[in-house]
Amino acid sequence: MTSVAALDRRATAVTLAQRAARAVFGAPSVRRSNGGAEASFTPRVLRGPSWRARRAATGVFAVDRQGAEATERLPRIWVSEPAVDGPGRTFVAAYPAGPDRGGWRAFELAEVYFAEALGLVGDEHRARRIDCYRAAEILLLHAAARGSVGAHCRLGIMYADDLCEGDYWRGLLECRALHAADTPLAERAYRHFSFGALHGHGECCWRLGELVAAGRGCAPDAARAVSLYRRAFDLENGRIDEDRAQTGNAALRLARAFERGCGCEQSFRRARTWYRVAAVALGAAFDAGQWHFKRERLEARRGVARMAQEIAGCY
Question: Which domains does the chain have, with CATH numbers?
Fold first, then answer.
């Protein structure tokens, strides 16, 4: 876990000049709100070797201990992006910087970090990938506190898959407490997915069903898992803004359940029907650019062929 000293060192990455610029030019982005394309307010004649080295050492994010929420569990966070005029990164926004009703701005910033982390594959990018996920977690916690259901879903995914590899945000109270116990990741994921499912979020429903089926963060219950898969499908299917990836994933899990008879009656015919629905929906999602569901799409197509073979009895 990250120590208080390490977080204080990160806070020093935010300079007095940057705080002053934020106070003068406002938020969410100092550089953009000023209408400029430059990555820094430092004049070009002063951008010497030490300035370039300092920018190259700029972290993915910085926790601002001098922020308005310094005494709270969630701090102000400074976010950065790759510099447009050379190597390194530059701070472009500080959050929170306003009321942000519904947490939309926090969720938007978190999605940028989430997308950057997904593109950082391989051990050589491990440290930066984890930092991107850590920044996303803090922003998502802000968004979730403001009522964003999508933020709860993203947090559940982070905890269920341990994307930060154990290095998650701990507030000042937790860092200073002598006997603070961290909530297990499976329980955190279960809590966030439950919130989303309660508010009619399709992806949260089928992801919660996976946790329930495996008994992660709760007692295993196959019948409840099937019910959650069906609810996820019903929530997404036929909507004007239907997310075909979520429809397909819910159908795929229903197909698995009927094929194996887990939480429902075993039926190859019903499993084949659900595999077909999943193959069509996931194929449409893949064609629309959601390439990260390639494995599920392939599983659904193979499931259709396998169920046809089982029904015909030809091996």
Answer: 1-182 (no CATH), 201-315 (1.25.40.10)
